[in-house]
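Box 3.1 A note on notation
Throughout this textbook, protein chains are presented in two layers. The first layer is the amino acid sequence; the second is a token string describing backbone geometry. Keep the layers aligned when reading.
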Amino acid sequence: MYWQIPSQTQAQQLNNLRFSIGRSHKPPTTAANNRRPLIIAGILLGIGQSGFFDGIVLHQLLQWHHMFSSVKTDTTVAGLELNTLGDGLFHAADWLVTVAGIFCLWGA
């Protein structure tokens, strides 16, 4: 015959070949496993962006509080310098968390 129904082993080989083209020879994953990197990326981006909102709006624009306000007052120059350093470190941490979220999202 010109056409024959492939046996189960041939069908499995074709299926494996179909999933291995362009990939790193990983078996197909379930939908639940595909969501995990997206959830991690979303959490990291949410934490980073909420930190940016807090740092920009509450620390800089409204000047309601600083990172080290409870440690040293911001009414003196030395206290303001320490609080500004704390705010800068907070912004750097926000930036790193946001970049990590972007890389997780890129790799998902």
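Helices lie at 8-20, 31-61, 77-107. The mean pLDDT is 81.
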